[in-house]
Records
---
Amino acid sequence: MSTADYQEKIPNNVGLADDRRLQRALESWQPGFRDWWAEMGPELPTEDVYLRTAVNVGREGWAHFGHVPVSEYRWGVFLADPRQDRRIAFGEHKGEPAWQKVPGEYRSALQRLIVIQGDTEPASVEQQRRLGYTAPSLYDLRNLFQVNVEEGRHLWAMVYLLHAFFGREGREEAGELLRRNSGSEDSPRILGAFNEETPDWLSFFMFTYFTDRDGKYQLGTLKESGFDPLSRTCEFMLKEEAHHMFVGTTGVDRVVGRTARLMVEHDTDDAGPHGAIPLNVIQKYLNFHYSVSLDLFGGETSTNVANYFSAGLKGRWQEERRKDDHLLIDRGAYVDAVEDGEPARVEVEALTALNTDLRDEYIADCESGVKRWNRILAEAGLPHRLALPHRAFNRYVGAFAGINASPSGEVLTDDEWEAHKGAWLPTDTDKTFVASLMHPVYEPGKIASWLEPPRNGINGKPFDYEYVHFL
Ligand SMILES: [Fe+2]
Ligand SMILES: [Fe+2]
């Protein structure tokens, strides 16, 4: 197991102490990061928060838990341990040793991939920066800050790669990552979903379930990269990402659980008057976050992505477990399309279909969330069910951007869409209602009316633990 030098200004396991030039570059980026955090990070003032801090990368004891002032969180640079004699698993370089340096011919493509991933990390912190004011419990407030500081660390992870391997251009891009801001008119974040607001906690749980999960799949493809430092960085990020998924999954569990309980208790379809979120509003939020997250995977076919694959820069989800030649030459695959005005699947060259391949993996994973939420409804004795909308629903990227589709996949005229969309996507009335439930609950052991308490606390602590101290 590699050891992290935790006494350093920038905790790391990449040997920063031995690389003065790199250390100076990162130290010169750090003040800008701190300014950005102060300006765009969590707004709610706190004294300290019970946070997990990455201190190592091994299987055992990679994280330390303790109360720390959020602004003094120790953002560090950690790569998963190297794999002895790691070989590239796919594409033209399959079987060759993984690269420890950037191959000149792939420099700009790799840099682009890292910048796009890096841009999403601080974006979500920006989107979530006011949520602390309405946290439904101290436990949830702590989880929000945990997600935020780790997204900050993911930014560090990408900035490390840019500084260490991409020279002056890399340093410039690292600066740009702090200059673009979510929702900004002049310099927005690169990807659409990261410029949407996260105005309330139902959105936050849906975001961490659906949109962070897109991140998990993107990281999964970069973890396969022939560029070994990128692969090892992403492998470690995925470990932290698992907690973000957990926050989303169990967050929605608890919302659905509360709604179901009140529906049964009051024998009604509308839990709204009883202080919970009506099931149809939960469904609309789900529809929205799922559909904007599907757009993040890009068009159905992409020659860029085919080239990334052939070059060994970006693999498929669980590339090494796939039972094929890992080259995909002269193979076919089915992708989404519109034929005769209707959603359809058409066959294309497998190499160009990799966005669809990844989106399909993601969709299958999302189904598992819906299954578990429906189990909660079934166990409450309710006949109601949640569902993922059709993949053509509410899409602005790819083949389905050209049609209007209902959640069941029925194609609609513009007028029909306008007339019905309020039944499928959150309306202003829905958002105002959800916002009206968002009152902060900062007393240990207490919780807001619209969700159940968690089954367990964090790191063996009880739910009523003082996860956050206020000034
Ligand atoms: Fe992240
Ligand atoms: Fe995340």
---
Amino acid sequence: MMPVPPPRASAAEREALHGELAALCAIRSPSGHERACADHVARVLRGLGLTVDEDDAGARIGGDAGNLLCRIPGTAAGDPTGQAVLLCAHLDTVPVAAEIRPVRDEQWWTDGLGGVLGADNKATVAALLVLAARLVREPIPLTVELLLTVQEEPQLQGAQAFDPRRLQASCGYVIDHPSPLGGIVVGAPGHVRFDARFHGRPAHAGIAPEDGRSAILAAARAVAALPHGRLDGGATVNVGQIAGGVDPEPGPVPAAPVTNVVPAHARVIGEVRGPDRDTLQATVDAVEAILHDAAHDPLGPVDLDLTLETRFQPYRHRASTLPVRHATAALERLGLTPRPFADGGASDANVLNAAGLPTVNLAGGNERAHQPGERISVAALEATLDLLLALVDEHVRTAEAGSATVADAAAPAGAADALGGGSAAPRPSG
Ligand SMILES: [Zn+2]
């Protein structure tokens, strides 16, 4: 059966989209400094007659703006919880060195000064603003909630500070993956950071080395014994920083480092990611055991202070989960090939799923994310708007058909599923 053609953006909407992208990208909004960008977005939405609520996340996590929530009410009365869909993007960008001058040629949007354009994630923000205008002009039965988060790049902090109880939506879409349109991130790992501080005993290295307990040696044992990289089962382990010496808080290596003292302090900082809670926990347990074994080696035992911090939880959806089904259908109706995959990076979808809202992260088509020369094609930007229109339409049609399944819960990560588990390159953020 041929899929029903989806609604498409008009020529005027495409022009509005390009204008919004240029306006948004020209506003610098590195994480924690989203004020001007948030004001612009709120002004556009309020100009449409919509209500925009900003939470106090900025004050709580040390930024100058909070998360924006804008609800576009549907025309259908009745159960609001079963009739709302969440669309989410982030307002912040990675740090930018200079002003940004968005330029468009026949094929691409880039920063004319060669920096990071900020299409991650402003291409989606621009598309959401144009979508909002359409939904105000042509109301639909469904309530659509727009969540614009701050401080996504530094460990999803804005989304983590957002109160998900404010949402009516029963499922959500984040459009924030830097891969070609069609990608559906159905699984993303959880992330635990470890900070291992080894404390030994100082002694003169030449006169009485027997009295010393080298923390650096213990740390080296640990690093050598830890697994690194991708493990069987899909977890990853990385040691990101080591330091050590006579100083409890070793700084940069001095011009004349102390070598005649057995070093009493060393620190190993790293992370574990796991595709599901069980694998993540098992890998963290293994890392913890190795760190303890390295510290308590009978040949030179030292003390260990270990801090484990869960940064975010993993998620993994079955192909039958509502947002996966609807994203797949919307992409097919657009003539795009849906590509469900599990990713190695994180997005606001991790936080929303952990809050019980089944959410997928969709590809937005931007390229070279976080790098100078970041770009998005004119075609991908316009396709993102079409994808949003098709997604919303898919929900409306399903609701009208009376077959909406709103009881889908986020699949417990690690549950058996039929989806391919291929992993994409990890993103520098998240
Ligand atoms: Zn992003």
